[in-house]
What does this fold into?
Amino acid sequence: MIQSFTMELIQPNDEVLIQLPSETTKLVKIVPDSIIGLGKFGSFPANSLLGRPYYLTWSILDGENFGLEPVPISELNSEKLATHTVPAATTSSSSDPAKASKKSKNTDSSTPSGVDSPGLALEDTAIGVQVGDDGEEDDEDVALDAGMLEQELEREQKLWEAEMKNNRDIRDDQTAQSMTWQEIEKLKKSGGTGSGKEIIARLLESHAYIDKKTAFSLAKYTKRKTNKYLKRIRVIPADIPNFTNYLITQKEPLKMLEIRDEAMGLMMSWADVKWGGRYLVIDDTGGLVVAAMAERMGLLTGEDARAPKKVSSARKRKREETDDGKDAKEEEEASVPQVEASEAPETTETAQKEANDHPFNTPIKPKTGYEQTTIPNSNTITVLHTQDQPNLSLLRPFNFDTANLINTTTHPLSTHLLSLSYLQLLSPESDVTLERPPVIPDPILRTLKSVKRSNYHRKCRRQERLLNIVSSTRRGGFDGAIIATGMELSGVINTVTPLLKGSGQLVIYSSSVEPLSEVVDWCSTLRRTEFMRIKKESETSSSSSSLTQLQLHTLDPDNTNPDIDPATLETLKSLPKLPAHTSDEYFPIDPTNLLAPTIHTSRVRTFQALPGRTHPLMTSRGGSEGYVLHATKVFPILEGKVEARGKFGSRKKGGGGGERSGGGGGRDKEKGKTSAKLNGKKEDVMEVDDLD
It folds into this structure.
C-alpha cells in the first residue's frame, strides 16, 4: 500500500532556524504580522514564510517588492556545477585543426563540454586505434607515428600543469580590483534580484589576476563574493539534530556539556527511549536531553501548543462566565466528601498516626473544593535535579516554558514531564514544599475572597502533585535512566540504579572518557568476585529485613526518616556491615547491579573531497569527542539460589542398538568411576581416568 507523504509546513509561532549567507544560523520565531530582521542582510515580513515548506532557499527583496522570492533549484544546481568546471579555453589546443576536429568528432558524447578528462584522453591516444562508422579501423589513425604520440603526451602534460598551477604571481591587494566601492553601492541601490549577480560578474571582470587563479582558488573567490552580495536565506526546522548543531557551533557548548548530535543518537538508542515507557533523567544540559527524549516519545509538540495566547484567553473567558455560580458549586462539592467521611469506617489511633507520619507511602485523599490531581502511569519523563527548579530553558523553542506554565497547559509535557529534587527523593520529610498547608474549615473557606480561595486550592493541588511524583518515583520500576551531568558518578549511580526495573537500561554521557572508565572498573569481574565473597562472609542467617535497596542507601543516621520505623532501624544498626561500605574506597557502587558496562563514541567529521586535496575541513570545530556508557540493570542472586531441574533425555547409541542413560552415563563424583548400560544390562563398573 502506497502511503501519502505530507510535507511539513511552517506554522505560526514556530521556532525555525535561518541559515544566513555568512554560513551562520539564527533562531527566529515566526510571529504573524511581524518583521524579521537579519541585520546587514535585510529584513522581510514573517507572513512570507507561513504555510511554506522547509529547506527552501529564498532571496530577500528590498524596495517596492519587499518580501521573499524562492530561488529555483535549477539556478542553485547551475551555480554548484559552475564552481567545479574548468574553462573551455584551456582545453582547446591542437596543432592540426583537421585532426582536432576529427578527434572531437569521435569523442564520447557523454563527456560534458568545458570539462577536460586528462586520463581519458591519454588512454585514447595511447591506443592509437579508432574505429570508424563502418566498424573498420581508420588508416590515418593507424598511421600515427611516435612523434604524434609524443605531441599528444606533451599536450596532456600542459593541461595537467595548467590545472595544477599555483597562486605565486597573484597580488591579493587593492590594486588587483579596479572596481570601486562607489560603483558597488550604486549597484546595490538599484535593487532587484539581479543586482547581486551583476556585482559578482563585474567583480570577476575587473579583477586583474582572475585568469591566473587556479580552479580551486577561483571557486573559493566566487563563493565568497556570492555569500557577500547575494541576500539568500534557507529555512530549516528547529528539530533536535539541527538545534543541537546550532547550539554547539554558535552558542556556549560548555553549558550543554559539548554534547553532539551523534552522541545524542547513541544515548537515545541504548536507553531504548520509545513511546509508553517510564524514564528517569538527570539533565545538566539545560533540557536538551529531555527534548530529545520527548521527541522520541511523541511529547515534544502538540496540536494546540503553538497558540498559547488563544488558549489562555479562552480559559480566562470561561473562568469569568462561571464566576457567578462559583460559590454554589464549591458548597456542593464540599458537601460530597463530608457524606463519604461519615459513612466511612472509623480507623484506630495507630492507623491514624501511621497515615500522618508516612505521607509519602500512603494514598492521597482528595481535598474538598477542587479535583484531585493525578499523574500518568506511562509515557513519562521524570527529571531529577539539584536546585529548587530544574533548568529546562532549552525547551522554550519547542513552545514549552517551565517559568510560564499557565500558557503551556495544553502542551503534552505539562502532564508527562515530572520533576523532583534530590532532597525530595532521599529525604522528603526535610523539604518544606512537601508540607501540607494548614487546613481551612469549609465555613471559613466560603467566607474568603475568590482570590484567596483559588490560591489555597492551588497550593493544595501543588502539594498533592508533588506527593504523587515522590511516591511514584520512590516505587521505582523505570524502564531506563539517562545521566548527563558533571557530578561525581558513584553517588548518582547509587541513587538511580535501585529505581530501575529488571533489564532496565542505564546510559551515562560524559565529555571525557576518564569518568566512564572508572565506572567500568568499578564493575569489573575482579571487584564483583571480591564483593560477593565479602558479602557472603558478612551475612547472618538471623537477619531479615523488608527494606528496599533505596531505603538502605538513604538511611538517615539521625533517625529522622519516617519511612523507617524504629524497630527496623535498631535491627539494621545491629547488623554487620561490609568494610567497603564504610569508606566507599574499593566498592563505590554495587558491582552486581550492572551488567556488561560498555563505552561507545561516535563523531561525524566533514571532509573536503577534491583531487589531491582530500582532508578534514580545517575550519571544523574541535572540542571533546563525547562518550556514552551503557549498562543493563540486573538483580544479584546469591550462590546456591539457582537450581537446574528436569530429566535428561536418553539418546541411542550408534551401531550397537543400545542406549546410554543420562545423556552419556552416570558419573560417580566421589570415586571418579563411570557406569554404563550395554544391551539393556548393567555391566561391571569400569574405572576410567577423570579427565575433568
